[in-house]
Specification:
The protein is mainly α and 169 residues long. Helix content is 68%, strand content 0%. It has helices spanning 6-19, 32-35, 53-76, 84-102, 111-137, 140-166. The relative contact order is 0.19.
Length: 169
C-alpha cells in the first residue's frame, strides 16, 4: 500500500463533496418517494426535449447525492484510496453517474454546466482507474501522478457543483 499525505487525501475527497452539489439540496424527507427511489427508475431523456428543472433534479439528484457521494466518501476515507477493491467500487459508481448524466438532455439553462460535469466525471473515472492500476503495481510515482490529476478534476467538479447551485439547481 502506498501512503499519501493527509492533504492529498482530503483533496481527493472533494470528489464526493462536488458530486453532492448536483441536484436540489432544498428537498427534504417529505419527498421520500423521489429521494429513495432507485436511480434506475428515475425518468431519463434519450435525446428528445430537454428535461424540466424538476425532472432533471429528480433524475440526477438521488443518483449523485444518495449513491455516488456516499460511495466515494466510503472509498476515499480511512485509506480507501489505497485499497484497489474500494477504489473499484467507487469507479463503478462514478461510471454509473457519468453514463446516466450523459444520457439525459439537461434544461437549456444549465446545458453548458451539464456538459462540464459529464466531462469532469469521465476524467475522474479515468484518474481513479490510473490510481487503481498504480496501486496494484505498487508504482508510487504513477499513483501520485494519478492522485494529482484526481485532485485537479475533483476541483472542477466542486466548481461546477457551485455553479449549478448558483443557477438554482
Amino acid at each position: 500500500m502506498i501512503r499519501y499525505r493527509a492533504g492529498a487525501l482530503l483533496a481527493a475527497a472533494a470528489v464526493a463533496a462536488g458530486a453532492a452539489g448536483c441536484g436540489s439540496s432544498s428537498k427534504n424527507s417529505s419527498s421520500a418517494s423521489s429521494s429513495t427511489a432507485p436511480a434506475s427508475t428515475a425518468p431519463a431523456s434519450n435525446g428528445s426535449a430537454p428535461l424540466s428543472k424538476a425532472a432533471y433534479e429528480q433524475t440526477l439528484g438521488p443518483l449523485l447525492n444518495n449513491q455516488v457521494a456516499p460511495a466515494l466518501k466510503t472509498a476515499l476515507a480511512n485509506g480507501g484510496i489505497a485499497d484497489p477493491t474500494k477504489l473499484s467500487s467507487a469507479i463503478a459508481d462514478v461510471k454509473l453517474a457519468h453514463d446516466r448524466m450523459a444520457a439525459v438532455t439537461p434544461p437549456s439553462a444549465i446545458a453548458d454546466l451539464h456538459q462540464q460535469a459529464v466531462t469532469a466525471l469521465g476524467a475522474i473515472k479515468a484518474d481513479m482507474e490510473k490510481l487503481r492500476a498504480a496501486e496494484l503495481k505498487k508504482a508510487r510515482s504513477d499513483a501520485l501522478s494519478a492522485l494529482n490529476s484526481l485532485k485537479a478534476d475533483a476541483q472542477k467538479i466542486v466548481t461546477v457543483g457551485n455553479q449549478f447551485q448558483a443557477r438554482g439547481f
